[in-house]
Every structure is written in C-alpha cells, then in structure tokens.
Design a protein that fits this description.
The protein has 79 residues and is mainly β. Helices cover 0% and strands 51% of the residues. It has strands at residues 4-8, 13-18, 23-29, 34-41, 44-49, 54-58, 64-66. The strands form two sheets. Strands 4-5-6-7 form a four-stranded antiparallel β-sheet, with no helix packed on it. A three-stranded antiparallel β-sheet has the order 1-2-3, with no helix packed on it.
C-alpha cells in the first residue's frame, strides 16, 4: 500500500487515497456504516460495520465477503 491510505466512514463508503497527492483514488459503497477498518494486505481490507458484521473487501475486485454473516458482535447498545 506504500503511498496509499484506506478509510471507512459512517456514510457507508470505503475510500482509497493517494497520500502523495492527497486525492481520493477510489470510493467503494458498502452496506452499512463502517465502524472500524484494518488493512490486511495491499489488496484486502477487513472492516466492522454498524450492523455488527465483519467484512472482507478486496480493493482490486470490489468484492465484499462477510466473515460473520449472521452473528451480532455485541454492538447493539451503540446503535
């Protein structure tokens, strides 16, 4: 990821930024507001959403896979 930053937002997007220019390179719509995010590899982001799900997002293909599709992670009190 070198000169790249990835951010998640309550506006239901994951955005990729070029740190050299400060410009947004890509914006990916997701199903629920992003509460936490970690870069697992140069092309893979894991994020937790407000619905209590953990998701894998492939930045190259824009494919999103849920890690825990039906289990709530105890975030109910924060909604």
């Amino acid at each position: 990821m070198g000169d790249t930053m990835v951010s998640g937002s309550l506006d239901t997007t994951v955005r990729v930024w070029d740190l050299g220019t400060g410009l947004q390179v890509r914006s990916l719509a997701v199903d629920s507001p992003v509460m936490s995010l970690i870069i697992a590899s140069p092309s893979l982001v894991l994020y937790g959403d407000k619905a209590g799900k953990v998701n894998f997002l492939n930045l190259e293909t824009s494919v999103c896979t849920r890690l825990v599709p039906s289990v709530k992670l105890g975030m109910d009190k924060y909604r």
